Amino acid sequence: MDKNFHKTNRQALYSRLEEDSLAIVSSGSAPRKSADEYYYYFADRSFMYLTGIDQSDATLLGFGGKSPDEKLDETLYIPPPDAMLERWNGERVKADKAEDISGINDIKYTQDFDPRLDLALGTGKYTTVYLPLFKYTRDEPDSREYRLAKYIQDRFPHITIKDLMPHIKALRLIKKPCEIEAIKKAEAITRKGIIAMMQAAKPGISELELRAEFLYAIMKNGAPTPAAPPIISAGVNNFCIHYHDHKGIAQDGDFILNDVGVPYKNLVTDVSRGWPVNGRFSDKQRQLYQCAYETSEHMFKLIKPGMPMKDVDGIIRQVNYQHLKDIGLCKSWDDIGTYMWHGGAHHVGFDVHDVVAITPDTPLAPGMVFCVDIGIYVEEWGIGFRLEDNCLVTETGCENLSKDIPRTIEEIEAVMN
Question: Fewest Cβ atoms closer than 10 Å to its Cβ: which of 213, 249, 296, 391?
Fold first, then answer.
């Protein structure tokens, strides 16, 4: 993404905020793993969406109430150069490069942030501070934003703290053309990774080997990391929806489940395919896979602007139920929960489960990208898998962005044999 992408995102964000307000977004830092070892740093996705700066301990300070036509009033705070630390931990982003990437002209160092914030809030000019306040679970430790909110409330009680996330989620909902193009590039790399696993699969192969095949293929083709920890399993391990152990060995007759993705320019994919480890679908495997495939095909013909978001999940469940009933698996609607364990749609973008402003009643609109995910889990048959594709809503319908990744029985068997 070029700097105009990030600048446009910031312009749109500031214009949504109240006048006399500040917006603060941090890049985050890597938590400690053990002893003196830290986890790999992974930049906050909203910070990346707004700046493109992949640098820990950086902060964006923007001023709200600006129309998209006004000159932006903002400062980016980055860690100062430090030759010794950079020798050990790698080069820090420098001011000129940060400006080229983000389009932010005012670059200062992190030690300047606290005095600048105190000075601004002490003038009485500003009444509101927006911070991205997001926790996935209640027991998560406070992030820098939560600590900063407490500091502001304690020292400047006249300041109102508001959550920035609803505004960021609204902006991230509709993908720009450059984002869609990046997702398409990511799909091409994902295809190589999945085909590599299909071609390596054989009875006796370990889940760990399949994971290695996927990682080697995507890294060889320009993706430095998967979009999320790959889910790759065989046999009974397929019945753990988010399985990451990779300790199993695929036996003859097992079905392979994988749920994987790749980033390209920070935009990601999320694709699932299932296949028999021996390369030939058994009768029961064929029956179940065809149910998922026909359901998926039905959805890609049906999805269009104006459809409520809840209908994607709802119709997937209804259509797949009818297919499972036709093969004699479901006797009544009450049986569907036995074989379908999760929903069929979540948005993708800067995150695999993208944080976007969506409700069940939100109508689909051009530029939305989400998964069409059909999961079938039949424990008594020992078969569990999901067929998951990435759907782009267009002006007149939709497009399957991952359609070139083998998805029919015939295509899968041709790749594997």
Answer: 249
pLDDT one-digit tens code per residue, 282-317: 999 999 999 999 999 999 999 999 999 999 999 999
How does residue 245 score in pLDDT terms, banded at 50, 70 and 90?
A: very high
pTM comes to 0.95
Give 3-172's CATH code, choosing from 3.30.450.40, 3.40.50.300, 3.40.350.10, 3.20.20.150.
3.40.350.10
- What are the φ/ψ torsions at residue 265 (nearest 5 degrees)? 50, 40
- pLDDT surpasses 90 at 67: no
Tokens of 322: 């009818």
Domain ranges of the chain: 3-172, 174-416
CATH of 174-416, one of 1.20.1250.20, 3.30.2130.10, 3.90.230.10, 3.40.50.620: 3.90.230.10
Alpha-carbon distance of 51 to 29, in angstroms, equals 16
Picking from 177, 140, 167, 129, the residue whose alpha carbon sits closest to that of residue 28 is: 140
What token pair was written down for 237?
Answer: 């391990």
